[in-house]
Design brief:
The structure is a homodimer. By secondary structure, chain A is an alpha/beta fold. Chain A has a single domain, classed as Thiolase/Chalcone synthase (Peroxisomal Thiolase, Chain A, domain 1, 3-Layer(aba) Sandwich). Helices cover about 35% and strands about 15% of the residues of chain A. Chain A is built from 14 helices and 11 strands. In chain A, the strands form 2 sheets. Chain A has a 9-stranded mixed sheet, sandwiched between helices. Chain A has a two-stranded antiparallel sheet with strand order 5-6. In chain A, β2 (about 50-55), α3 (about 65-75) and β3 (about 80-85) form a beta-alpha-beta unit. In chain A, α7 (about 165-180) packs across α11 (about 290-300). The longest helix of chain A has 16 residues, at about 145-160. The first copy, chain A, is globular and about 55 Å long. At the A-B interface, α3, β3, α4, β8 and α10 of A face α3, β3, α4, β8 and α10 of B. β3 (about 80-85) of chain A pairs antiparallel with β3 of chain B, so a sheet runs across the interface.
């Protein structure tokens, strides 16, 4: 079974990320679906797509739950079964996993997976409150802890244990903003300097404004099929060869250590094992940089370096666009934006573009194996997938 | 493939339904898990259960999303992947479907599916508002339409087209309250008379208080495994031999007719087809009686009678506990209660008890084939499953 594709991506679409005033989530989703159809005209949505799995985190933003059939309707998929999944910021990473299961079950030949979030019409206070629902109510929210606070805790623990610096974290922002400036769909398309990043206002020490991803609107979708059917739809399929998902306690306080995410390490182990690959085989990755410290921890959890060496990796330019192991070429959550329900699928979208040579000004040459790392909340959910050019 | 089991139920557990003051959803879920473990001591949760799929409708009730890992933690399943799905009142019907896909994929041998909702600590106004999120925001909620209003619309259309009467609807309540009086886990364990039901106050004409299910707290879970492994865990497995799920527009106004649910008919068609069975093979059923009219429509959508004959079916006692085709022996949503995220799994729990002779004072003798019918919102999601005694 090792290395045998679990499912293949026939097409992918992404809406423009950012502040998308005057649109509902369903309209953003349709924008992504339309791109996927244009990219792969051989797929007849109504005839071919047999199910929809969609990540959508918050019913509160638009006072709208039951998003599965709503989006299936707008995408023209009725009466196909439609499933909304919520796993905080890993919602569409999990939706992608469900799509893989659906294909592997043999019960479906073609399914759509997607993700969407419309957030910016809300005040920052509202958005922060809705996001906080992904942390533990009695043991975290109730005491006023928000996600910047939880990740600040991880950052100080990492600084204390490994000597990671505020400069190293700021360099993640500098790198991802540079990448974002090359991505026409990114929320932020301008570079920032190390000095700007370090001088930005403190949100939760040591995390400053530029250490935090923005609140964004956006949507994405992928069309998955059986590997043996992929060539029927596209000449350039991308195969999903490894996949892992794991869980941890929702409350950070329950965990043994704060400087790595146990669920991410376990999800990575599963993904490498199913793919029959190791970290050194990965040539490009999109990781969950909700905060800059999260990208540094991701390097370590994914085995790109040893624990404690993540800060050095970005400092030495290894994960830069022209480095030996580019990470977050899309701009990441930091610059591309983080419409929470859409992020997992948006990561896979970027890997698809890179592996098929469609990434424009940020294209990395000669990459065949990519990885995505999607984290929910403070790490209670993690999904890792590995992709290979077809 | 027809009639070959898709998955098997090794064990099942259900919390007491009703007003469960002072408990969090996670504690209710643990109550259900503990029963499932007691019922099937051969399952070692931490060793055997490889994934959790859980239905949970509203993050607003407890200000708590990211329910998948939270419940996996409380059930002792970490680091197993955990997925929360939301499909309105069909959330755990869909979770059960995902569990079936997971088993069918061959990637898992044993998974848990569950559902939970904690609602009664909120005011009725809050609960009605949170429930309304499962209807269309711009085209329904915004105009003040709530679920009693939407189902009242279906009721008046059914009365107009087929001559269905308020008495026939009230008889659904009388039947289900009688069944509930025999179920020690039901929210309401007392009978009501036809006169009481008809005289109760109008909620949205023609639906009166006794035509509407209550707001309840509760949780349920099932342990699913591959059919060929079922006997390893229990001498009395229940096989899932048919399964269907379909979607419709979230807004009722978009539909061609109001007197049946297209998604339910399509889900039933798929379930009968995969099972290689027809409506006349079904000996017992749990259907989604969120309102009494919904049970009457369910009879028709499931093919238990012709369109327009549903009212007569209950009037003639055919669906009573001692009738030829007992429906909602548990008391249904009407009397057992409707903790929305738990309902789909709770229906499967009742069928498991009935098929294995464990239903106590409400046991129906000699039943081998059962069916569940779980509806989300006003019918944008529907799941139908068919079960056979192992």
């Amino acid at each position: 079974m090792k290395g045998k594709p679990l499912a293949s991506i026939a097409s992918a679409g992404l809406s423009k990320f950012g502040r998308r005033d005057g649109l509902y989530a369903r309209e953003l989703f349709l924008e992504a679906v339309n791109e996927a159809v244009e990219r792969c005209p051989n797929v007849d949505l109504r005839k071919d797509v047999q199910a929809l799995f969609v990540g959508h985190m918050g019913e509160s933003y638009e006072h709208q739950g039951h998003t599965g059939p709503t989006l299936a309707d707008w995408a023209g998929l009725l009466p196909a079964p439609a499933v909304r999944v919520e796993a905080a910021c890993a919602s569409s990473g999990v939706a992608l996993r469900l799509g893989i299961l659906a294909i592997a079950s043999g019960l479906f030949n073609v399914v759509m997976v997607g993700g969407v979030e419309k957030m910016t019409h809300r005040t920052t206070a509202e958005a922060v409150e809705f996001l906080a629902m992904a942390s533990d109510f009695p043991f975290e929210q109730w005491h006023g802890v928000t996600f910047p606070g939880l990740f600040a805790l991880m950052a100080t623990a990492h600084m204390n244990k490994y000597g990671t610096t505020e400069e190293q974290m700021a360099l993640v922002a500098v790198k991802n903003h540079r990448n974002g400036s090359l991505n026409p769909k990114a929320h932020f398309q301008r570079e920032v300097t190390l000095e700007e990043a370090l001088a930005s206002r403190v949100v939760a020490w040591p995390l400053k404004l530029y250490d935090c991803c923005p609140i964004s609107d956006g949507a994405g979708c992928l069309i998955l099929t059986k590997p043996e059917l992929a060539k029927r739809f596209t000449d350039e399929p991308v195969h999903i060869v490894g996949s892992g998902q794991a869980s941890d306690s929702i409350g950070v306080y329950e965990r043994e250590e704060f400087t790595s995410l146990a669920a991410a390490k376990e999800a990575a182990r599963q993904a490498y094992e199913t793919a029959g690959l190791s970290p050194k085989d990965v040539q490009i990755a999109e990781v969950h940089d909700c905060f800059t410290i999260a990208e540094i921890i991701a390097y370590e959890d994914l085995g790109f370096c040893k624990p404690g060496e993540g800060g050095r990796l970005v400092e030495e330019g290894i994960t830069a666009l022209n480095g030996s192991m580019p990470v977050n070429t899309s701009g990441g959550l930091k610059a591309k934006g983080h419409p929470v329900g859409a992020t997992g699928v948006a990561q896979a979208y970027e890997i698809c573009l890179q592996l098929t040579g469609q990434a424009g000004r940020r294209q990395v040459e000669g990459v065949n194996v990519g990885l995505t790392h999607n984290v929910g909340g403070s790490g209670a959910t993690a999904v890792v997938n590995i992709y290979k050019r077809g």
